[in-house]
Amino acid sequence: MLRFVFRRLIQLVPILLGLSILLFAWVRALPGGPAQALLGQRATPEAVRDIEVQLGLDRPLWEQYLQFLWRAVRLDFGASLQTGQPVVDEMMRRFPATIELALCALLIAVAIGIPLGYLAARRHGTWVDHVVVSGSLLGVTVPIFFLAYLLKFVFAVQLGWLPTAGRADARARTEHPTGFYVLDGIITGDLGASWDAITHLILPALALASIPLAVIVRMTRASVLNVLNEDYVRTAEAKGLLAGTITRRHVLRNSMLPVTTVIGLQLGVLLAGAVLTETVFAFAGVGKFMADGIVERDFPTIQGFILVIAVIYVVVNMIVDLVYGLLDPRVRVS
Amino acid sequence: MSVTEAGSVPVGKAPLEAGKPDTDSRPPARGLRGEAARRFFRNPMAIVGLVLIAIFVTVAILAPWIAPYSPKDNSWLSEVRPGVYPGPSAEHWLGIDPLGRDVFSRLVHGARQSLLIGVVSLTLGATAGVFLGLLAGAFGGWVDTVVMRFVDIMLSVPGLLFAIAVAAMLGQSLTSVMIAIAVVNVPIFARLLRGEMLGQRTADYVLAAKSLGISRAGIVFRHVLPNSFTPILVQGTLTLALAIVEAAGLAFLGLSGSDPSTPEWGRMLNDAQSTLAAAPMLAFYPGLAIVLAALGFTLVGESLREALDPKMRR
Amino acid sequence: MSFLQVRDLTVTFQRSGHPPVRAVDGLTLDVAAGQSVGIVGESGSGKSVTSLAIMGLLPRRGVKVTGQVRLGDRDLTALTPRQMRDVRGSEVAMIFQDPMTSLNPVITVGRQLTEVITRHSQASKVDARREAESLLRRVGIPDPARRLGEYPHQLSGGMRQRVMIAIAIACRPRLLIADEPTTALDVTIQAQILDLLRDLVSESGCGLIMITHDLGVVAGLCDEVHVMYAGRVVESATATNLFGRPSHPYTDGLLRSIPRMDDDRGAALHTIRGSVRDLVPWDRGCAFQPRCDRAVDACLAGPPAVTDVSVTSPHRARCIRPVNVAASSTSVSKAKGGVR
Predict the structure, then answer these.
(1) Which residues does the UniProt record annotate as the domain ABC transmembrane type-1 (chain B) (predicted)?
(2) Rounded average pLDDT over B256-285
């Protein structure tokens, strides 16, 4: 068991290294050269020369790469061209918001997706099944930002049920010890603030959840259909087990295995999707910062964001792999 | 409840550990094509999808003849005032946008952009991906390891972010968008084809061909590749749908190629952001167009998958 | 006194856009306590569907089951699904063909055993575990205590099938149905499994229905044999009589197809011409007619009558021109449905 975990961890290394190499090459290929790109407007000849020395552009390539790697490990991505502050600091400040949003979206996707998928599988071929499948197809094809607009327009602008923008009511004076607004409200005893945060989260989370929801529904449905067809389900029936037992112990446990893998993958979709969703709702998270950075050609920010997100993505997927190994004894042997 | 009907084999964006495709139960490529075609055309999803695609492609190709005005023609600026954006009328079927241009014409020409980007990036990405997958699958050994490591690394960055990075790097142009989306698709196809080949490699008919002395290239091109064709086709249609959406996403973020006056659905959506309250339809039209175009390909892709999967008996 | 009585069992599959298919057509058979009955047939003959129908494991959509399946004093076809669940596993149990896919890969062997025990009895978890261990020992699995915590993929094919058997006999059913239990196993293991089944049956006095396409299996194990073709039984006899004096041309053809040590070298192997798809519906004539060398015009005149082929022992064939008929037999009973 431990060997399995260890082996998986080892596989991380080449991927992370490869990622760093890719990013390094990318920086070097930026328009105008890396120095120019990293300085942007403030690229006076002196500053450029300074940066070139700093980046070691006069040194051999492999030395540059090592420097790059060293800086990346220390999370030194330079200063954001938008704010002049270190990219790391700007990202750290905004990360809790995005994490809160992503978790909320994931929760929605899983809590609604798995039951729906199961339902569709059990009612395979009926209208319920068709509706669910069609809905999931729609979920994948509707662009997140368009959905965000629609939600905002209908529920916020027209109906006024939910706020149109931001993370919280701008007028409120609340403490934010952790940066996770919903949690903060609970910690400081101000449940009104928590509720306020939640209402601000609903629409963007719904928009963000659309793709993962659709994927989870499809995956669950396919997986359950597959399992229902398996011989061991027939054996369970032949044993005369109660329907509930069969569903829980034999059908669900086996069909959830592929679904967990999918959930890990969806995190990447969520983090990328945050870039598209946060702008629409002026949600002060890392995604919006990145979106603004793209428009402003803030390469240090873009670089930092991509590296951090990619690492998170890889690590999360590895964790998912491990969890899968825990659930499916066959995997451990190989 | 007892033994129920056949399910479908989950295929799609492969997790980091690609599984073996179920090749033993897949029939030889040629014989069952007719039956698959019948199943395909009997599926209402497929028909709707084909209709949507037909409309989309027709509009895209015939845009200059369908659009009543040039998409860049902004001579109606005078009719526009802040907060007042003329809606649908006899001369302007979908109204006028804040810069005085005919919305319908822009929408129609936007189809061209989307189709172009979709087709080109799909072709580029699929070709490169299939080629890589072929290399990995045909040679195995260290070639396989190297290629798949590379693919894994590329897949470690979520798709959209990868496209953003590439597009930002290549600068503001239509080509850069197409390349960006193509690059995102390379690892998907590479892994797909390599997985297929891996599964086929141990199939009985391959062993039989080998025992007859058929060369490796012969086996790959004349036997394995045709049998791997169907998942590629399915993935291709789905990728095309995604490419349309991704291109719109990139445009939404400000990374679209070409100059701002060229109509592009994603950018039109972005532009409509500022006038959302006053003229919501300006956002709906391009958004709806994106959805319908992508939906067409998605429906066809899904129907193809169902029709070509031998396990689906109903 | 037979405690399983199947009367006129008919299973019709209805797929939209396709004509209905009668997989089982008016089947009638009996199984007595302690008796081993073999059902022989090739793929498509309806033998597996028969077993699923008896167990009530056929899907409810698209399938129509008529006829009676009496177990003791109850008609299984008349039971509600919940009642049928109580019967399955405890009074009637089934052993399936492929032990690899028939066991849940992510649940331990022990759990898969104890769950059927606790389902049909008041046994505590501890008792059930103990019972499971002794069951594993009974079916010949070495080191049973360790096996309880293992997973199916850690066992060999033969051992997995033993586990399946253990599961089936766990609640001491009165009827055991084995659907091709040895087909997926090596020949040497086959023999062991069959021996095990024979022991269990004689020890417990339960009835056994052995479904197979392998005549050798039947010869070694079964008292009575029914040969199925196209959904109906075409010949019934004791094993000895069936192999000694096959009456139906189909059975005859099957037996002739088995190559023998004393056959002429160089002589062509005997086959039954045509294929299962060359079919005549039973209500129009004899389904086997297109492939039969002994067919005459009357074979297409209507469903063939059932002939008592022997006076001395129950041996019947659904044929108007049976092979190997003893001199003074011919009590022709024109029964509709099964060979009775």
Answers:
(1) 111-301
(2) 79
**Does residue A334 have a pLDDT over 70?**
no
Asked if A293 is an interface residue toward chain B (Cβ–Cβ < 8 A), one would say no
Would the CB atoms of C119 and A242 count as touching at under 8 Å?
yes
* Residue C59 forms contact with B (CB below 8 Å): yes
Best residue of A36, A126, A141 to probe chain B, by most B CBs closer than 10 Å: A141
Is residue B110 within 8 Å of B268, Cβ to Cβ? yes
Restricting to C residues 66-85, those with a Cβ less than 8 Å away from any Cβ of B are 81
Q: Do B160 and A272 touch (CB under 8 A)?
A: yes
**Mean pLDDT, all residues of chain B:** 78
Q: What is the dihedral of CA C156, C157, C163, C166, to 10 degrees?
A: -130
> Which other chains touch chain A, taking contact as 3+ CB pairs less than 8 Å apart?
B, C
pTM of the model: 0.81
**Which ipTM was obtained for this model?**
0.83
Q: Please report, to the nearest 10 degrees, the dihedral formed by the alpha carbons of residues B103, B177, B232, B133 taken in order.
A: 180
Q: Is B283 on the interface with A (CB under 8 A)?
A: yes
The burial of B214, by beta-carbon neighbours within 10 Å (0-12 exposed, 13-18 middle, 19 or more buried), is given as middle
Closest CA to B184 of B211, B212, B164: B164
Q: Which tokens in the block code for residue A220?
A: 């669950």
Nearest to B137 by CA among B11, B310, B20, B10: B20
pLDDT at site C332: 40
pLDDT single digits (tens) C279-300? 778 888 888 888 888 888 888 8
Is B160 an interface residue toward A (CB < 8 Å)?
yes
Instruction: Identify the helix (H) or strand (E) that includes residue C169.
Output: helix C157-169
Mean pLDDT for chain A overall: 83
Q: pLDDT tens digits for B221-247?
A: 777 777 777 788 888 999 999 898 888
State whether B299 and A19 contact (CB < 8 Å).
Answer: no
Say whether A240 and C86 touch across the interface (CB within 8 A).
Answer: yes
* CA separation, residue B13 to residues A224, A324, C229 (Å): 18, 17, 47
